[in-house]
Amino acid sequence: MLLLLFRVGEDRYALDTQAIVEVIPRVSLVRYHGTPPTVAGRFNYQGQIVPVLDLSQLLGDKPCEPVWSTRIIVVNLAPSPAQPRLLGLLVEQATETLAGEGVKSAENRLQLSQQPYLGDVLLQDHEMIQCLKVEQILAEHHYDSLLSPLD
To answer: Tens digit of pLDDT for each residue in 73-90?
Structure first.
């Protein structure tokens, strides 16, 4: 397993690279009107309109800063690559990867969060890394509602 690491504040997070289509530099986004602050906007990715969520806003309650290491991680939420459901994840400091062999899973007996997108907690040296379940970040009906005004 290969993980892409990024930070939200002082906390480290990881995404399994199997769901990642591409990591691109931050681009200009067209805002959605009337959406929560976690929805950063949308952009044209190879002829497809892709909604973008701000993971700094979702996980840390503050907008993603426009720094050099800010990236949009394009992921496929669909179980099949033939019918992609692309989503952009706006993150800061997405600058390194980590092979799964270099980490161990922390025992997580206490479930403090009701957020279905929070996965395992890993330990690397003395630092904790929270894994995210890409397929749980945005429910299918929410994804469809972000695209429906465009159809």
So the answer is: 999 988 776 778 899 999
